[in-house]
C-alpha cells in the first residue's frame, strides 16, 4: 500500500488493537502519533474510537489544527464510530465539546419509537443501505451487514453514502471528497469491513 | 434491521478446546483457531473464548489463543473465565479481545464493572450471570464460582445493577438447562431482557433449531450462544441461520 505511514490517532477512547490488526492484515503501514507535530509525516489519518463523545475533548486545538492542515493538503481522513461522529460539528452527548466540523450537522441520541422494544445502545450486525455510489463503498453490496455498537448517530445529509435503520435511519457511511467515515466497526465486520478498509487504503495510497 | 446474533463459545483449557468436538475435517484437533476459522466461514456473528481453568499457566496459553484467533478473524471476540482484575482484562484486550466477560469478580468487586467500562467503554464489558429457577417460578437465583455458590441475588435485579454500573451486555446462562439440550430457559431470558436496555445473550440448553427460534421470540433474546451443538456439527451455523430466516427472524447472512 502506501510507503509513508498512516496516522492512527489514539485519544484513549477504546482500544486500538483491533484496528491495528485489521490494517496490518491488509498490508498497511500504521503509526500512532505521540503529538500533533508527528502528523506532518502522515500520508493519511484515521480517527478511531468508541464510547462517550466527551473523550474527544482530548483532541484539543493543536490536534484539530494539525488534522485540518492534513485535510487541507488533500490527505485522506477516515473516522470510525466515535471518530466518525467527531468529524461533524458536535454531539448532544457532550454539548460543550466541539467536533472537527469538516462535515455539517450535529450528532444526537438514537430515538426508540414509543412502545417499541428496540434496545439502545444499538449493538450487533445491521444492514447498510446505499443511497449513492462512492469510492468508500466500492464492491459493497446494497444491504451488506456490518457490526455496530453505539447510542448516538450522525444525521443524514448530502455527505451520506449509506444509511442504517434502528428505530430511525441514520448515516452509517459518509464521504465528502477525501473525508470519509463509518458508524460501524470495519475492523470487526468480517469481509464487508475489510473491503471498506481496502477501499479507503486505496484512496490513501 | 438489526440481526439476532449467533455466538459460538469455545471452552478452552491450556490452549485446547475441551468440550467434546467432532474432529473430522479439522486439521488440528481441538485447536481453537481452527474451530474459530470454521465457524467464521459458516457465518458465526461473534466468538466467545472461555478459559475454564483460569490457572496461571492456562492464562498464558489463553493470551496465545486470543492472539491466534484475533490475527485472522475480524468479528467481535469476547473473552471470559478468571478475569478478576484490571490486569487480567488488560492482558485479554492487549491480546486482541474486544470484550471481556466478568462473572465471579463482578460480585466480589462490583466496582470493577465501572472501572473497566470507564477504561474500555461499556461495549467492551459483558457481565455473565449464571442463574437457576428458585421456588415457585418468577424468581431466578444467581450463582457464582461456576454455578457452585449462591450469591443471594435475583437475576433480574442483578442484571439491572450490572447495567447501571456500566455493563454493555448481559450473558445469561441457565444452570438448569446447561448441557441438557432441552432448550433455552425462555421465561428467564425474557424476564431479564425486558428489564434492561442492553443486549441479553441467552445461553444454556441449545439443542434443536426450534430452540433458537423460541429464545429469539418468546425469550426476547438479542443473541444466542451455544457450544456443543456447533462443535459436534449437529447444527451448522449456516443451516441454523437459514432456518431462523425462514421463520422470519432477522439474521446476518
General description of the model:
The complex is a heterodimer of chains A (205) and B (253). Chain A is α/β, with parallel strands linked by helices and 205 residues long. Chain A is 20% helix and 26% strand. Chain A is built from 4 helices and 13 strands. In chain A, the strands form 3 sheets. Chain A has an 8-stranded mixed sheet. Chain A has a 3-stranded mixed sheet with strand order 5-6-10, with no helix packed on it. In chain A, strands 7-9 form a two-stranded antiparallel ribbon. The model of chain A has no long low-confidence stretch (mean pLDDT 94). Chain B has 253 residues and is α/β, with parallel strands linked by helices. Chain B contains 10 helices and 11 strands. Chain B has an 8-stranded parallel β-barrel with strand order 1-3-4-5-6-9-10-11, surrounded by 7 helices. In chain B, helix 6 (155-165) packs parallel to helix 7. The longest helix of chain B has 17 residues, at 56-72. The two termini of chain B are 12 Å apart. At the A-B interface, helix 1, strand 7, strand 9 and helix 4 of A face helix 2 of B.
Counted by DSSP, the helix tally of chain A is 4
- How would the global form of chain B be characterised? globular
Q: Tell me the major beta sheet of chain A.
A: 8 strands, mixed
Strand content of chain B: 15-25%
Structural class of chain A: alpha/beta
